[in-house]
Specification:
The protein has 698 residues and is α+β, with helices and mostly antiparallel strands. Helices cover 67% and strands 8% of the residues. Strand 6 (591-592) and strand 7 (600-601) form a beta hairpin. The longest helix is centred in the middle third of the chain and has 75 residues, at 324-398.
């Protein structure tokens, strides 16, 4: 063998060995299972998806070679959830199906168990709640049969998430309690389970279900939760929700505001802040917070509203079929009102254009008149000059000794004057033609203005018909029954308005409502008509006022892209016992009289207006007996009525008027209050619709 080649070969082998040794010192071997497992969990949930997939593939290969089935399927399941979080459901579903097929072909119980867990996660995250529930229940059954020694808390908590989306609080409490009481549950999972229990009991309290019992159970769960509660810096959204609900149960509004401001979700934070401000009786701030919440929801949930519309299409179809006749009539009226509104707007624009054209023509005519006056003055001056020349000619003709050259000069001057007069007459003729054309155009413009005025009068007449249609939607004939005195009236600020009132006598029960739709004009009147129709339908089901408010809120919130809402006071009076139940949805508090026929505002629950949020739950209230005590209900067109100095009537003046009116009957009471409002306005135009209702049981 050649000695130099042998030496070179030895050097290459030595260099390769050194390189491998250095690499072994800097990078762990791919067959180091512990290092690959740590690296997998370090990369899990980060944006390094490509590196994560590379590490988990190496770990899967190693687990297959050493027979570690559990770690093999956990690594594969982590690939599915990592891909779902960063690349979407389609790619994650492909990886999941490969894992499931492999588990089935290998007849691996743990593989089937793990793939079912992963499938439940995908279904729950995709909003497929029924399928996710079924998958989690299969996991629990599989666990009980084959792996009873392992923790099953993740499945219980997955079910809690499903039932939380469905608002099924009792099921949340059931499965969260199982997770919390399982001795194999980790402390972090037990904390999450206790937070689910607290939130479920708080939601039951909000719904008014067994308030005392749920309050006690909430405090017990909260005490257990505080034992494992995280440090302030490590708190997550669920922990903040628990602290907020604890402050709400303890009725500490300032603490509610503190915790609500720490919530990361903008919509949830605004919703909780509105609830806190309502609990604090800061209704102005609560209203502004709700307005901000609606603005954010409109920008965030447009795509979600499309999905919800598709999901509710079948339900809406059934509801529309039940009310087909009424909806068709209302739709025709809406189309008529919309057509009238569009035509009025078009005529208004045409009238503005004609007015501008008329002003332009008047300016041109004025300019032509000035020019004509100047021409007339020039002609007068020329006439004077002509008479002067003629006088000179007569004098010169009387002289016999005038020289021929002077005569020629005079004749030449006369010719020049004649030429000038001819030119002047030609120019005057052209000016007269222009003036005639201007007068013709002005006459045509006046004719168009006449037609526009006639069209406007016709549209105003049609709006008066629309006003009559709207007024016919509220009752004008009141019950003639012993022991019942009821009267109401509505005065729109425009031709059509958004106020409403209604009442239905159902045996010994009198249902009534007074409402105020946000805005005025045709849109408000259409929303008002829909509200009256729904109120009639719900009263026939003999629901309580709070249940009527909840059902109205659900129906009016759907497809409400224009953000319309209505404040309402809904009541139900028992004519035999005098018992009065009611629900105030963001409306002005009514005034109730005492035995001395004075008056005071009724303290009402701070509910939101109807039509803002479909998930809103309205709280009802009641008065044991209102017999002998007049009840006065009104819209804000009364207390916000303004005089020419823009001074409002106000709550204090309203209360003073009601206290000093001597009650004879409901109609005289309302007429007296209406007269006081007109006296306050001092002739000013009404700035809002005005509706009043008075009730007295004897």
């Amino acid at each position: 063998m050649n000695k130099p080649k042998t030496i070179a070969l030895l050097l290459c082998c030595l260099l390769s060995a050194l390189t491998v040794g250095l690499q072994a010192q800097t990078t762990p071997a791919t067959n180091d299972k512990e290092w690959l497992t740590q690296e997998m969990y370090r990369l899990y949930g980060t944006d390094s998806t490509a590196r994560f997939m590379e590490v988990t593939e190496q770990l899967k290969d190693l687990c297959l070679s050493v027979g570690d089935e559990h770690l093999f399927y956990r690594a594969w399941a982590n690939q599915v959830t990592q891909t779902y979080s960063h690349n979407g459901r389609v790619e994650a579903q492909a990886i999941f199906e490969a894992m499931q097929d492999y588990a089935l072909k290998s007849d691996s119980k743990f593989g089937i168990y793990t793939s079912t867990q992963t499938n439940a996660y995908i279904l729950s995250s995709s909003g497929m709640l029924d399928q996710a529930e079924k998958a989690y229940l299969e996991i629990i059954d599989y666990h009980d049969r084959y792996y009873p020694d392992e923790s099953i808390a993740f499945a219980y908590l997955g079910l809690c998430k499903v039932y939380q989306n469905r608002k099924e609080n009792q099921k949340i409490i059931l499965y969260a309690s199982k997770a919390a009481n399982d001795p194999k549950t980790l402390p972090s999972a037990r904390r999450i389970a206790l937070s689910y229990i607290c939130i479920a009991h708080a939601d039951e309290i909000r719904k008014g279900i067994s308030i005392e019992e749920n309050t006690r159970k909430f405090k017990e769960a909260y005490a257990e939760y505080k034992k494992v509660a995280p440090a302030d810096a490590d708190m997550k959204s669920a922990d903040i929700f628990v602290e907020f609900y604890n402050a709400k149960v303890d009725s500490v509004p300032d603490s509610m505001i503190y915790w609500a401001n720490r919530i990361r979700s903008v919509t949830t934070r605004l919703s909780f802040l509105a609830s806190a401000y309502q609990r604090k009786s800061d209704y102005r701030q609560a209203y502004y917070t709700m307005v901000d919440l609606k603005s954010v929801q409109d920008s965030l949930y447009r795509l979600e509203s499309v999905k919800k519309s598709m999901e509710n299409a079948e339900l809406l179809g059934r509801l529309h079929a039940e009310n087909e006749a009424k909806d068709l009539r209302l739709a025709n009226q809406a189309l008529l009102l919309g057509h009238i509104h569009d035509e009025l707007e078009q005529r208004r624009l045409e009238e503005e254009a004609l007015n501008l054209m008329l002003k332009h023509r008047e300016a041109e005519l004025h300019s032509a008149a000035i020019q004509m006056e100047n021409d007339s003055l020039d002609r007068y001056n020329k006439d004077l000059q002509l008479r002067e020349y003629q006088s000179q000619l007569e004098v010169q003709q009387g002289k016999e000794k005038i020289e021929r050259i002077m005569l020629r000069s005079i004749i030449g001057g006369g010719l020049l004057i004649i030429a000038f007069l001819a030119f002047y007459l030609y120019r005057r003729s052209r000016h007269m033609k222009k003036l005639a054309t201007a007068y013709s155009e002005l006459e045509h413009t006046y004719e168009q203005l006449k037609q526009t005025t006639e069209a406007k009068e016709r549209i105003e007449g049609e709006l008066l018909v629309a006003r009559d249609i709207q007024m016919s939607m509220v009752p004008h004939t009141f019950p003639d029954r012993p022991g019942l005195d009821l009267y109401a009236e509505m005065t729109p600020a425009k031709e059509v308005g958004g106020d409403l009132y209604d009442f239905i006598l159902h045996g010994d029960l009198l249902y009534l409502c007074v409402g105020d739709v946000a805005g005025k004009g045709v849109p408000a009147s259409l929303f008002m008509a829909q509200t009256v129709r729904l109120f009639h339908a719900l009263v026939l089901q003999q629901l309580s006022p709070s249940e009527i408010a909840n059902r109205l809120n659900i129906d009016l919130s759907e497809n409400n892209d224009n953000g319309m809402f209505v404040t309402m006071f809904i009541g139900c009076a028992d004519l035999q016992t005098g018992h009065f139940s009611f629900c105030n949805a963001g409306h002005n508090p009514p005034v109730i009289g005492g035995s001395d026929q004075g008056g005071t505002f009724i303290p009402v629950e701070s509910n939101a207006p109807i039509g803002l949020w479909p998930e809103m739950e309205f709280v009802g209230e009641e008065i044991d007996n209102i017999k002998g005590r007049p009840l006065f209900i009104y819209t804000d067109g009364l207390n916000e009525a303004e005089n020419p100095q823009q001074e409002q009537l106000g709550d204090e003046r309203l209360l003073a008027i009601v206290r000093h009116v001597r009650f004879h009957n409901a109609r005289q009471t309302i007429e007296h209050i209406h007269a006081e409002v007109e006296r306050h306005r001092q002739g000013a135009e009404p700035n809002d619709d005005l509706t009043m209702m008075c009730l007295r049981l004897n």
